[in-house]
Amino acid sequence: MPRQGARQRAMELLERVGLRELAQRYPAELSGGQKQRVALARAMARGPEILLLDEPTSALDVPTRDEILAELLREVRDFGVPVLAVSHDPQLCLYADRVAVLADGVIAQEGTAQALMEKPRNAQVGRFFGYVEVGRGRIAALGQSADTAEVVVDARRLDARLAVPSLGEGSLVRLGCRPTEVRLAGEGAIPPGYQRLELTVRNAHREGSFWRLDGTAPINLPLRIPQALWRAGPRRHLAVDIASSELLLWSL
Question: For the ABC transporter domain, which residue ranges apply (predicted)?
């Protein structure tokens, strides 16, 4: 392409990503989001049939990441080019039409982000979406609905949800949940669909404006609570509620 034509094409692309007025700036004078848009314009200059993004959110803090992701994907959609992104950031999945989780070099599960987050089929996929393994037990009985079961852990019976339909009565299982789905129990009755457990706190450490508590109840439940609640009265024993639908069972 002649030099004049290349310059015109470059300015057109910068116009499309909203950076035409910054064309004379040096890279060091651009923000993180502006650099991402320049990278997008440079990639689109080749007229690709598909755009590959390798860890597009790496080295970005959370507020910047969310802003840049929304901006970048809005620009990508304007170009109308399909995108294949590789990332260790589960937040990126929320922007994807379809997600494939790789484990040990093979696709462990694929589908929509919503489907994978609600029912990861094994502990590896679950960890990617924030689940932690909290214990092991045995299925005592299947529930009335197709994907529920009663599991026994150290003689305690808990209601849980099957991650895969092949699990049956007597199956040995792993239990998983997300810390954000365990909450301090209130003073009143147990909410419908929840079960109440007595948590013996073993460890406590800060995570930003929250405390992360780990304890046994009899499963090893994680819990995130605001700093003010924990400062108000550190206790060794806490009553916690967890929704039965948020306690997942994976094959052992």
Answer: 7-58
Residue 51 is which amino acid? L
Q: What are the tens digits of pLDDT across the range 78-89?
A: 778 888 999 988
Residue 210 is encoded by which pair of tokens? Answer: 């929250």
Q: Tokens 């792993």 — which residue?
A: 174
Does pTM surpass 0.90? no
Q: Provide the token pair at 20.
A: 């035409």
Q: Give CATH for domain 130-251.
A: 2.40.50.100
Encode pLDDT of 179-238 as tens digits.
889 988 988 899 999 999 999 998 888 888 888 888 888 889 888 888 777 766 667 888
Q: Which of 151, 138, 145, 181 is nearest to 165 (CA)?
A: 145
Q: 56 Cβ partners below 8 Å, 6+ apart?
A: 36, 68, 69, 72, 85, 87, 92
**Range(s) for CATH 2.40.50.100 in the chain?**
130-251
